[in-house]
Amino acid sequence: MSRASEQAYAKIRAHVLSGAARAGEQLTEDQLAQIAGVSRTPVREAVRRLEDELLLVRSDTKRLFVADWSRDDIEEMFALRQMLECHAAERAAQRINRAQIAALEAINRTLKDAIELPAPDVARFLEANRGFHEVIVDAAHSPRLGQMLAKLVEAPVVLRTARTYSPDDLRQSARDHDELIASFAARDPDWARAVMGSHLRRAFHTFAKAVGPAASDQEP
Amino acid sequence: MSRASEQAYAKIRAHVLSGAARAGEQLTEDQLAQIAGVSRTPVREAVRRLEDELLLVRSDTKRLFVADWSRDDIEEMFALRQMLECHAAERAAQRINRAQIAALEAINRTLKDAIELPAPDVARFLEANRGFHEVIVDAAHSPRLGQMLAKLVEAPVVLRTARTYSPDDLRQSARDHDELIASFAARDPDWARAVMGSHLRRAFHTFAKAVGPAASDQEP
DNA sequence: CCTCGCGTTATTGTATACAAAACGCGCCCG
DNA sequence: CGGGCGCGTTTTGTATACAATAACGCGAGG
Description:
The structure is a homodimer. By secondary structure, the first copy, chain A, is mainly alpha-helical. In chain A, 72% of the residues lie in helices and 4% in strands. The first copy, chain A, is built from ten helices and three strands. A three-stranded antiparallel β-sheet of chain A has the order 1-3-2. Chain A is globular. Mean pLDDT of chain A is 89; it is low at 215-220. Chain A binds chain B through residues 2, 44-45, 48, 52, 54, 62, 73, 76-77, 79-80, 83-84, 87, 142-145, 148, 152, and chain B through 2, 44-45, 48, 52, 54, 62, 73, 76-77, 79-80, 83-84, 87, 142-145, 148, 152. Chain A binds a DNA duplex through helix 1 and helix 3.
């Protein structure tokens, strides 16, 4: 989008993800306009996108709040993501080309580097990981699918919990990626689907362990 | 949404679906504002929704066009819908309550009525059909899933091709619905998924037969 | 003491005017 | 003759003012 609305989007998003705005807190368009340094018009545009991405929600009467994800919401999100990405992997295995496989290999090398630096660089890991999954979705040749997944992957939970991954978790992810690449090279949709399934399912359990078995945080 | 933007949405949507605007044709916000009888502000809001629903698309440089669905797009859409609705049916079978099953039975009676009137009333059939699937998605208890499906189900192709269904097709749909209800009553997720799968797959082939094996229409 | 209604204030929705950007066309120069 | 460049026009983007609507508090009546 265009300059102002893009900036509004970025700033509001950062404001929410950084935790500066607490879950359930009300936000007004004026407030956000000030934060973003633009007028309400582009703010409204940005807010619509963020609503769509479920970072913000509206009350019955159009008032705006920071979304409060319940544990059920999060589980649901993981389940949907798994379903969609498994489908993507399956399609990708049938459609991927050599260049894309090469791209996956290159990205996964970068990703491994990010793990093994003196200390793991989670930001770089995430960036590479994002790129990896993006190539797969591209290879699936299903724009709608890509659009849906983009929403789920961008969801706040994923980003906020990223830092809870241990080096072992990260290394296992890299190994999953290697196997995914192998399944693509073999053009075996069933294999690709299965690997993707366990890859994401493990991510869910890592997350679940990190936040504990019940709801994560609450105070008066 | 609020009055003006809702009206804009409805009118623009009708304008596109009615075929008054041809696929690929450019639309300007001013033009749409005139059609809807409101100012550009709510039009922009409506247009965003329609973009999201893929009835409209933007060129690289923000100009607005009526979406032109290729056959591949349509097949993709059916495939995604099938994946999502099968998942919904599976979940619904595990979660649906008596009241919802009763609702499905009532809706399906209405639907059968709509078929057997002197002549089939396709509009009423579609309305009932929509309601039927909606109850299932509700019963699946997955708001995100519902949101995604809403987009796909509203897609233009489904609506435009509805009229190509024969009475036999409609009757078969009603029978599928009966079996779905049976699978829910039995709380059998596998059964529900399977029935939903064949239900939608058949719909796709009915569609495919109607528009012919290749692209549907073109002229200079 | 509760609650219902009303006026005030906060917040969102819409219109309009202006700014920025993109398209198209014709002209100039190679 | 062709291709790129400038300039008027069209179209989208942003700001701002105003309108409509929802939340809130306060006071009167039960």
